[in-house]
Amino acid sequence: MSEPKPPTPTPGDTYKGWLFKWTNYIKGYQRRWFVLSNGLLSYYRTQAEMGHTCRGTINLATANIAVEDSCNFVISNGGAQTYHLKASSEVERQRWITALELAKAKAVRMQAESDDSGDDCPAVPPTSGQGGGCRNSEVQSTLRTLSSKVEDLTTCNDLIVKHGSALQRSLSELEGIRVGADMGEKIRQVTERATLFRITSNAMINACRDFLSLAQNHSKRWQKALQTERDQRIRLEETLEQLAKQHNHLERAFRGATVLPSSFSNPTLGSKGGVTGKGDASDEDDDNEFFDAMEDPAEFITVPADPKYHRRSGSNVSGLSSEIGMDDQSVNFDELSLASNPESPQPLELEPVRQRRTRIPDKPNYYLNLWSIMKNCIGKELSKIPMPVNFNEPLSMLQRLSEDLEYYELLDKAAKCQNSLEQMCYVAAFTVSSYSTTVHRTGKPFNPLLGETFELDRLRECGYRSLCEQVSHHPPAAAHHAVSEKGWTLRQEIALASKFRGKYLSIMPLGSIQCLFDKSNNHYSWKKVTTTVHNIIVGKLWIDQSGEIDVVNHKTGDRCHLKFAPYSYFSRDVPRKVTGVVTDKDGKAHYVLSGTWDEKMEFSRIMQSSKGENGTEGKQRTVYQTLKAKEIWRKNPLPDGAETMYFFSTLALTLNETEDGVAPTDSRRRPDQRLMEDGRWDEANAEKQRLEEKQRTARREREREAVKAASSPEEADVQETGTEASEVSDESAHPDNYQAQWFEKIDDPVSGDTFHVYKGGYWEAKDQGSWDMCPDIF
């Protein structure tokens, strides 16, 4: 099939077309799509990549263009970049050469005009005062000096041309003269003109040297000043963002500490005019907080949607924003219904919110020979290896599991959504946010003892509370249940499988996580990805997350496929990258998610999709036309001095804070963990060994009771039935045949998973102060 004939290039046009680019001696010339625009020559593997992945760009203002033969030509900018290109024909090559030369001339001219206009602008704003005026006058003086040097160079150039021409004429006359009386006169003229040419050339060289030296000196100063201005701008932006977040948190704290008037206690009294007050405006601000545009949505081939979609959705506002606005209108109705719900405890009077701690004792610097301990652990299950607290952080695995709720606001917003696909975006962002606290957390959490619990009661501050319990010891498994006044429930059971491979440690979470929303009855489930700790023996420890997650809505069939890209030294992508696509039950894509699991996530609505050209692996990739992306989640900054406090987040600092009324099995009461937090590591190691031995003794006691029960007359009668006997005997003899205190194992008919769910009773026992049923594990 013949390709359309490209237009004849003109100085102001953007020129595009296919060229063959030399890659290496193995692959030779490869077909690439080149785009010439604004003095820049860029190339892509395919036309579809123009929207997101540029393979290389060269600035023609400083480039040299050389023709090798009838079809080949070379573009180089002094050694840093060199493109060996080949056109399909000599005519095509000439079109490209013409376009490149025109673009280069225009780029040089525009660069000169840009420099001139930049020189006319003041170096600092007028409000900078007297210091700015001095700097401006200094710049003007430097510019005048440079201008005079340029005039000197121009004069020297004119003289060189003049004397060079005269010298050339004299040499020509000298060649044609006959040997005679005029020989001496002609030689004298040639010598004189050669001397003038040498003097002028030396002056030119000196003037060039002075100009170059002056330009280099001031260029360094200007670059330094420019970098200083950029750093100041970045600091101001970060400060402004921090102030905006603090302002938002203060608004939330104020709303959380405010009791609704009695007239709002009945949702039937709220009219359309009555529910549109100051609180609604604040909630709307919460839903649209920090929704910045995504600059480079990678991983997926995405291009801007047709302008007709933007006009249909509003000026620079996606259809998703209108959906969020619809959800905001129903915010107060949800809150009023929660207020009238008898299962949601509400404060009868205004009480001050508890001030949580913001610091813990600094981590002591104890030396430990790591290899002496780890060399005997290669290939073993990490949970079965006795480890000193030097490798730990002063939190248990139950508390680390509760840290998944740090960004509970995402689930609050998801509960307000009327659109299940939009709700899926928030749930997917919540799954990614749970990994943000792990980026610097290289310490190992304490393995919970069997029967250990941890409660996180944030009902008054954040509207939720959660409970964790260690329901199995081998394999170690923990059950977690969290419920919110905003209408969502989170439950999970996670068992960890870990292997030490010498250079790295792999942690594979087993089990599933489920999230249920009361209003829509949507039921979501997903699993966790693999965590890898690198440089165990040599080098600085660092953590990576890799794998894929499928978030499934079992009610509607919607699905979000998330991919956590593993770190690669040779990859051009940003590290810790996460991408995802939200699809409905028919497989149609509606939203694209992109970001990093340690910083932020963004999502954009898909308006149209089509099949693109084959990728590098021969697979046909989909091209999505999307609206402008919006930020859905951003990581909270770490508290000051976090590097000396195990890189704990603001929430993590409060997890081990002592509280009255918690169960005697709560992780806060664990003595070895408390001693480690206080910096008494030697005592913590001794206490840890005592607790582990106590747990082994309790396990042996359970084994003896199981054997005794299996040998009783009743069990003997059961053994005669054959199959039933083996089942009862196997179950009774299982070392971890432990009945959880607050959870029970069920088969979920919706997801098909078997896991422990909360059976109730804990918070009632706490209100009554009755903990007689709790085992003595500490």
UniProtKB/TrEMBL annotation:
Coiled-coil positions: 226-253
Gene Ontology BP term (one): lipid transport
Annotated GO MF terms: sterol binding
Segments forming domain PH: 12-105
SUPFAM superfamilies: Oxysterol-binding protein-like, PH domain-like
The keyword Phosphoprotein belongs to this UniProt entry's keyword annotation: yes
CDD domains: PH_OSBP_ORP4 (cd13284)
Membrane topology: Peripheral membrane protein
InterPro entries found in the cross-reference section: OSBP_sf, Oxysterol-bd, Oxysterol-bd_CS, PH-like_dom_sf, PH_domain
PROSITE patterns xref list: OSBP, PH_DOMAIN
Places the protein is found: Membrane
Biased composition annotated in UniProt, kind: Basic and acidic residues: 666-707
GO cellular component: cytosol; perinuclear endoplasmic reticulum; plasma membrane
Chief place where the protein resides: membrane
Disordered, as annotated region: 113-138, 265-289, 302-324, 659-738
Family: Belongs to the OSBP family.
PANTHER family in the cross-refs: OXYSTEROL-BINDING PROTEIN 1, OXYSTEROL-BINDING PROTEIN-RELATED
Protein's name according to its UniProt entry: Oxysterol-binding protein
Organism: Stegastes partitus
